[in-house]
Amino acid sequence: MKAYNETWVRNKHITEQAARWQRQGLFDEAKMQQIRENYPVGFHESNGFIEIGLFVFSIVAVSGGYFLLATLLSKLFEVDLFYHFFNIGFGSAIGFLAGHLINSRKHYRAGIDNALIIAAVALVIVGVIGLFPNNMPLWQYCFIGLPMILLGVWYYSDLLLTLVAFGTLTVALFDFMLEFSFGKQLLPFVLMGVSAGLYVLARLYEDRDELVYWRDNFILLEWLSLSLLLISCNYYAVRELNYWMMDRRPAEAPEITWAGLFWTLTIAVPVLLFYLGFRQKERPLLIMSAIGWGLALATWRYFHPLFSLEVYLAVNGLSLILVAVFLIRYLRVPRAGFTDRPDEDSPNQFLINAELLASVQATSGHLGSKDGMRFGEGDFGGGGSGDRY
Amino acid sequence: MSPKRVLQELADQHLLDEQQRVVIQSVEEQKLFSVHWELRSLLYAGILLFTTGTGWLIYRYIDQIGHNLLILALAVVCAACFAFATRFKGPLSTAHSPSRSPFGDYALLLGCLLFLTLEGYLQYQYNLFGTRYGLVTFLPAILFLTLAYLFDHRGVLAMGLTALISWIGVTVRPLEFYFRGNLKDMTVLLSAIALSLVLMAGALVLDRQRIKRHFTITTLTFAGNLLLVALVAGLFNFKEQDLLFAVALAVACVAFDWYARKEHSFLFLLMSTFYGYIGVTYLVFHYLHLRDEATYLYWIVTGIGITAYLSRSRKV
């Protein structure tokens, strides 16, 4: 028993795959129609922009309800216990409301349900944790909350909850390891081990038939665990974290134990990811390896700068351009199973929009660099133009 | 479920005959891995890093030997980029007409960004435009907009619009050039409103004439955000005229809502909802001085109301 109709989720997956084949011209529209009729999907269609609006305004309404009730009942909250039970009760009520809307309005990740699910799980967890003594270490609270978040992921297959669960696990491990005297040294290795393990787990289970309800969650987990892996083996990250965890900080971050090993890992892990991604043709591995190379290069430059930052930017930018141009020309004919031809999986529109935002950002930067002017980017926020990938 | 399993499932249900199944299976087995967008993102990132790096570089070593060589090299690269883009330009057309080379669009982008760098440098070092600061942004704005239409390039269009929006700020208040700070000045505010109206009218006229219709949404998004931000800023900053700004904001939001429904564009629906909500909320709190409970009630009522409204608009 899950929040969303499992058959519809499965049918949605099947018809989406079939639609991909139809777009490639492997069968005609009549056949596609026949497949749609055999695999009905009852969820309401939605749209990304509308979902954003629905999410935001659902949160507004829920916050209003929460604070109104809390204000009216504030007299009772002099006894802490009431407050915690109020949180649990209000969270459960929101959960019931989410369930009702999912059933009656046929929502599936439509903004409203995402907002209500997050609010419900968060309130219940805050309430339950409130029932425990308030002088426990952070990792214990995390380990109390984690099963409830995972239960939420199991029931709702919500992606935001998956992200929260991953974050909670990371924080819990982090805090737990610091309990031990040797924990600080061991921490990066534990995080590396856990992220690698989670990645393997996600890869093993993402395509399982019976787990199709959580397919997107497994894919998200792949991206998250690869990101954590890159950070936890990075020399800069380890050194800075070590510095921040010191009781008495010197002026500069001191050298860490096993520095050589971390330097090796900083460079070797992206190489390994690239090798695996190339062999297995896995997009997350390839993209994260490219980001990892960027990180490794930035780390190297930070500690061993040969030139000024400007020179690095210009030289690396030029190298990136040359590499990309070479690869685009080289892959005009397919090689080793790779091609430059766009396929039906490409997130076309999304990337064009990202590129537009990046151009706007770059233009404002250039227009502004001369006399400290900044204008034009106000409405849009950053396009992530500085990212190395 | 892997594609293979989906195929098996469809075959088991007799939705695909054996021949279709075999064909699809062989297509899946020989499927190539497309790195099209990854490589383009790499190229894009390279261009942005390169232009940012060189943009800073020319100011850093401004009095050193080799500096002129750097400027010369950048000018040559910039010219080469424009030449390359021109050589592979698609035929001049009012419809979509992409470059004939996969690198044409990127060369044009690199050329435009380098042009900005060089132009800024000439003004800094030789005071090329004197005190007419407006020209520093107006010139690239006009150049980029022209190039965007000639070369059919949405990125350059966005750059041109950015430069144009900078231009009204520059001309009116060259020294206090900051988005929010600027809109406290009535002249800047009115220029922003006027510019956005002109841009929107232009975009709609061109759309009607069927000239580069795929540009319409970019221009309208830019100009629309500028207009709505300006109106909200007017409402916040000019208490005496707030009724006027409130009415104007309401009209703009209704117009965007109408346009969104007509063109089935959810982005404009979301824009009108957000800016409209900010405006209404500001007026309510400014004039009604709600107490805590009433504030929370306002959140509940409006939150549910707008959620219901957006839900019903899911199929605009």
Q: Classify the oligomer.
A: heterodimer
Rg of chain B (CA only): 26 Å
Query: What ranges of chain A have pLDDT less than 50 throughout 5 or more consecutive residues?
Result: 369-389
**What share of the residues of chain A does DSSP label as strand, in percent?**
under 5%
Summarize the biggest pleated sheet of chain B.
none
Beta-strand residue percentage of chain B? under 5%
Main beta sheet of chain A: none
**Tally of individual helices of chain A:** 14
Please trace the helix and strand order of chain B, writing H or E for each element.
Answer: HHEHHHHHHHHHHH
InterPro entries (chain B): DUF2157 (IPR018677)
Protein name (chain B): DUF2157 domain-containing protein
Domain DUF2157 (chain B): 9-155
Keywords (chain B): Membrane, Transmembrane, Transmembrane helix
Question: What report would you give on this structure?
Answer:
The complex is a heterodimer of chains A (389) and B (316). Chain A contains 14 helices and one strand, in the order αααααααααααααβα. Chain A has helices spanning 6-23, 29-38, 48-72, 80-105, 112-131, 138-156, 159-177, 183-205, 215-232, 235-244, 259-280, 283-303, 309-330, 348-369; one strand spanning 338-339. Chain B has helices at 3-12, 18-29, 36-60, 67-87, 104-126, 133-151, 154-172, 179-182, 186-208, 216-237, 242-263, 266-288, 292-312; one strand at 33-34. Chain B is flat and about 65 Å long. Chains A and B meet through α1, α2, α3, α12 and α13 of A and α1, α2, β1, α3 and α5 of B.
